[in-house]
Amino acid sequence: MIPALILTLVLQAAIPARLGAQAASAAPSSASVAPSSATNASSGTPAAPSSSPAALPGGFRGINLGMDIDQVKKALVADPLFGYRGDPDVSMLPQSHDYLIECAGPSYIQRAYFQFANKRLLTMILMLDTEKLDYFSLYTALTGKYGQPASLSPQEAVWQSTSVRLSLERPLTVKYIDQATFANLIGKAGAPTDLEGLSKEKFIEQF
Description:
This protein has helices at residues 17-26, 69-78, 135-146, 179-186, 191-204, and strands spanning 59-60, 63-64, 90-92, 99-104, 109-117, 120-128, 151-152, 156-160, 164-169, 173-178. The chain is α+β, with helices and mostly antiparallel strands and 207 residues long. The strands form two sheets. The chain has an eight-stranded antiparallel sheet. Strands 1-2 form a two-stranded antiparallel ribbon.
């Protein structure tokens, strides 16, 4: 999937310094309050500064993009949220000859896919249980932590950085993609079919 368009930030014009100085001199000194010392009118306590969105994560529960397959296997074995069974859950992609780990989950995760490229984790897909979680709750949590998505459609919300593409897709799937590695693979013949086609095939099998 080609990364979506980045939202354009609207910049407001600043008040010229000269007019600001005139306004400050005309106002009573008792009413002048510096931004850094602003207080809550009702409680008198300092106003909380606005927080910046957190950086996008490079993985989930200690499983990070760029890990080799042995590191991912070890993390899956140690995490009870994944029902990883070992080698029966590991297969090889027919075109690229890279590995794919597919496992179930006993709780919130119905199925999880870990796709490798050049022996490193490229994509992590988590298909979540819609009876235990819902799209709106996850969307609210993600926007609260990482800010507004770079793109939003009825099908998905996408957050992006230079290194990670994080998407929340309906009905309830979370995807992490290594941006740099994926961009390199797009330039190779057959890579988009191998990556996107596999995800579509696996998704259809869930019905």
